[in-house]
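Researcher: I'm comparing several assemblies side by side, and this is the next one on my list. It has 230 residues spread over two chains. Same procedure as the others: predict the full complex and return the structure.
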Amino acid sequence: AQSVTQLGSHVSVSEGALVLLRCNYSSSVPPYLFWYVQYPNQGLQLLLKYTTGATLVKGINGFEAEFKKSETSFHLTKPSAHMSDAAEYFCAVSASGTYKYIFGTGTRLKVLA
Amino acid sequence: DAGVTQSPTHLIKTRGQQVTLRCSPKSGHDTVSWYQQALGQGPQFIFQYYEEEERQRGNFPDRFSGHQFPNYSSELNVNALLLGDSALYLCASSSTGLAGVYSYEQYFGPGTRLTVT
């Protein structure tokens, strides 16, 4: 069985500040991990993914995430927030042997001018 | 290159009615998954279709059914609508391929907003 926990349903940062969105997962088999972004009234856009290999994953729009097996975490970071980063962010887990994604409840990022 | 498309964009139905939502996958993709996203929640997996068959199903009642066509497009049908079925319904496409090797990267469409009154 798999599950995802996103700590902090709302996160506010100042423009230019570090963005850190937290995601912890539970999986009985090696996980595949994903971060998606959702803008208002839109679908989900893939930011980055981890399946195998390098544990530091770089995605679009300057985001990156690090898979830490010992901490069962896959936190999303961006060195400098832009106003355009304001959106809802979802962490998801899947694994070999299952085709579905299990999503977290999301973190709404607000960027302050 | 067209991405995942869904129709209609919005839909309003009455309790007890039936609804059909449609999805066309991204070019080159042969696998379609459906998710329900209630307001303020993360998407919940409904089912996935590959080779015109339901390959995996989430914890949704039989009122939710689907179909995949030879061109890989898909429909989601919901019967006997309840107020609680009001949500954004997302379609996601991915690739399995002839060798049966599934790509775990899913591309999502813009969704269909269903309101049940």
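Model: For your comparison table: The interface with chain B takes residues 4, 32, 36, 41-46, 49, 51, 90, 92, 94, 98-106 of chain A (CB under 8 Å).
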